[in-house]
């Protein structure tokens, strides 16, 4: 709780000291990255990031292979994964999602959904490459 209060005070200070919106955004990113580094170094985040997620991805892929054509159904990850995999691997707990969008999408929508989705993403990338070659997002 003390760390959250310190982070809030730091953000309040940075907002007050920021001369422009861009500078505020840079300071905000710096604060978020610093907090993330702290979490990685001083909590069990590394364990979950390196070991637990890999096991979840593998089990999710195994479930995907049970229904590879049509998948298990859109939005069913939490129910299916927690019902069928519980007790079979080390990273116990309730998993809301796979923490890997392509693997979770394959499990939920199968090849019938993944193929058009992949083609759409490739189409968007092709448009980006053939137009000016860069994204047009700006903060004004």
3D structure, described in words:
With about 140 residues, this protein is mostly helical. The protein has helices at about 1-15, 20-40, 45-65, 75-85, 100-130. It is flat and about 55 Å long. It folds into two domains: about 1-40; about 50-130, no CATH class. It is built from five helices and no strands. Helix 1 packs antiparallel against helix 2 and helix 3 (about 45-65) packs across helix 5. The mean pLDDT is about 75. It is a multi-pass membrane protein.
Chain-wise SSE layout:
Elements: H1 2-17, H2 21-42, H3 45-66, H4 77-85, H5 101-130
Helix pairs in contact: 1-2, 3-5
* CA-based shape: flat
Give the total of beta strands: 0
Q: What is the averaged pLDDT score?
A: 77
Cα-based radius of gyration, to the nearest Å: 21 Å
**Tally of individual helices:** 5
- The ordered H/E elements are HHHHH
Biggest sheet details: none
Subcellular location: Membrane
InterPro entries: O-antigen_ligase-rel_domated (IPR007016)
Keywords: Membrane, Transmembrane, Transmembrane helix
Protein name: O-antigen ligase-related domain-containing protein
List keywords for this structure.
5 helices, 140 residues
Brief rundown of the structure:
This protein is mainly α and 140 residues long.
